[in-house]
Specification:
This protein is mainly α. The protein contains 6 helices and 2 strands. The chain has a single domain, classed as Cytochrome c-like domain (Cytochrome Bc1 Complex, Chain D, domain 2). The N and C termini lie far apart (61 Å).
Length: 142
């Protein structure tokens, strides 16, 4: 009988500890979602100030001149290169959705936080569903 009580007690403790972990993860996930939403909101302002004239309000860019950000395979497959392009500019040939672009995107002098926010905005706009929550810490390491 003592063994049975001991097993039940251990099982109860295991369940209680596991439940607590799930709640902590859930809270952390909600905090991340809240942070992401705020970042996207700030990124919208950065986009409107610096990016909209070339990539347009719909993110479709101008064919063969300024590449699209909406449904961009380059953006999806090259997140680090894309972040570096926003931070440092980009020169040279790239291919986006099968179309070649060979131009220059000048460095805009954005802070790490602005790069973070505009990247999160782009990653979550125009039907983009890029699962990469960019943080200022990640950007600063580039």
């Amino acid at each position: 009988m003592k063994n049975y009580a001991l097993i039940l007690t251990l099982l109860f403790l295991l369940i209680a500890c596991h439940s607590k972990e799930k709640k902590q993860n859930y809270i952390s996930e909600n905090q991340d979602q809240s942070s992401l939403k705020e970042s996207i909101k700030r990124g919208s302002v950065v986009y409107d100030d610096f990016c909209i004239s070339c990539h347009l309000p719909n993110g479709k860019g101008i064919p063969k001149v300024f590449p699209p950000l909406a449904n961009s395979d380059y953006l999806k497959n090259n997140q680090i290169k894309s972040i570096k392009a926003i931070k440092y500019g980009l020169t040279g040939k790239i291919t986006v959705n099968g179309t070649s672009y060979n131009g220059t995107m000048t460095a805009l002098g954005l802070s790490d936080e602005e790069v973070t926010d505009v990247t999160n905005y782009i990653n979550n706009s125009w039907d983009n569903k890029i699962d990469n929550f960019v943080t200022s810490e990640k950007v600063s390491k580039l």
